[in-house]
Protein: Xanthine dehydrogenase accessory factor
Organism: Phyllobacterium myrsinacearum
Amino acid sequence: MDPYCLKKLNAERRARRAALLLTDLGDGRDRVIKEGDPVAGQLGELIGRAFLSGRSGVAEVDGRSFFLNVHLPPPRLVVIGAVHISQALAPMAKLAGYDVEIIDPRTAFATPERFSDVTLFAEWPQDVLKTRPFDAYTAVAVVTHDPKIDDQALEAALKAGCFYIGALGSRKTHGARVERLRALGFDDAGIARIHAPIGLDIGAASPSEIAVAVLAEVIGAFRARSLHTPLTLEKTA
């Protein structure tokens, strides 16, 4: 591999951005392609599919052979709220291959006894995000029912272009949430990216059932994801 390509690829991986090393098997030349970079024709379509699937392999295009070596960041699920749903959701998400983090400033809930095998932050979301920001390979599930906590995470998730954003609460609760986000400058198209009520509609009632519905929705969003450009706020008078 060309040293320049290796350096570029490693930089993308450190930044938790997807990248692909494209090697022409005919002449051995390679180049790094970032997710979202324009590549024309059939090769571009195959590269797009490779980013979605995460699978590396050989592609035949116009009589030429290419090896597509895909590097995706490990998907991360950040749960805002150390509640009963989170206790069920965390181990299931880990089994599904997600790195899981729980954030909740309420120290009565965010305890090692309740979350013994999970990365846990008993801090406000905005404080954690200074060093562990959201990105396009992060799913965010906000479940505290406390706007002082949830809204901070939702604002950050929308700006970061997270592949999944879900929020617990009734339609009435979400209606009030929408108004608060509009007041922060987000438009309806951006706010519509929030899955609310959170989780697939399977009639879930118990915390464990809700956790199943949330994880299924996260997995579906990841496998069908498209690139979301980080949002900029509308100017308000």
